[in-house]
Write a structure and sequence with these properties.
Number of strands: 7
Order of helices and strands: HHHHHEHEEHEEHEE
Structural class: alpha+beta
Shape: elongated
Number of domains: 3
Strand content: 5-15%
CATH superfamily of the largest domain: Histidine kinase-like ATPase, C-terminal domain
Length: about 350
Amino acid sequence: MLLAKTLRSSTFRLALIAIGIFGVIVGAMIAYVYFGTLAYVHSRVGDVGDHDSFTRTIALAMIAATGLLLVLAAVAAVLVTRRTVGRIEQINATSRAIMLSGLDQRIPLRGSHDEWDRVAENLNQMLDRIETLMSEVKQVGDNVAHDLRTPLTRMRGRLEKAYHAPRNNETDATLIGDTIADLDAVLGMFTSITRISEIETRARKGAFRELNLVDIAGEVVELYDAAAEQVATRLGLAGDREVKVTGDRDLLFDAIANLVDNAVKHGRAHGQVTVTCTTSDGAAVIAIADNGPGIPADQHDQVFKRFYRLERSRYTPGNGLGLSLAAAVAHLHGAEISLRDNAPGLLVELRFPPPSAQ
């Protein structure tokens, strides 16, 4: 594998060019020596034809020397290029591991103190700095969420107490009830932020176990059945009876619930929302499809950003964190989340890796 990459590398091609130039120079030198020798023998002896054996020996020796030099140069080029490609592949492998599992990976040093060790050391220091900055940002976000959630929770408690206390008129009850609802929305937003942060740090991977995705999807459909009926939307479960997946049950429930909530909330009245669980090529797949207005194709990537909301959704309840949480859960489980046009409507698909790839 490494040899194939070595032979395809640009470094090896440059080495071959250098060998070609070297071969031309050596060939020119040998030709000069060969013909010079013939001229010398001719000037000293007279008829060069009497010394064919001598000249053939010189020619064969020079050809053999040229061939040997070229072979040695080619072997040296392969060895040097292989070493270079090996170090580059090591850096690439570490980069892939960082993208898949987090910033805790580092490029190993060989202790040779050469230029490749210096590059690896600089990259490791850069990763240390990035990890520190991300940790500080996360800490600030967690502190802000905690500091704001505490007084909001106290305010809600006082309003709850006032709501259940004797009142003089219904206006007070309505006002307090609306305030409690707003506080619940703000508290829910902070809960989602801290939950996404917890997921992205992979703190929940210890709770992974084998699950039946159909059971989780069925619980979500049952939970949202009443909400779907209120907007005259048919909510159903389809697909296989058993779809195995390894993961955190609570997080998967939250992710599917957010996707179903979006489909019911933003779909059209008298519409259809279908949750389908299947197994494709050994991989567990769950798809949530609706026949609502959908999401424009140029905004498919944008909607996974925190707090991002479509213009038409700004006046409906929500905080723009549902798809962000679903994407974070998918990433934690090594799953791919994708949006597609359902013609009409939107289809959101979560495709989990097969057990052999986990």
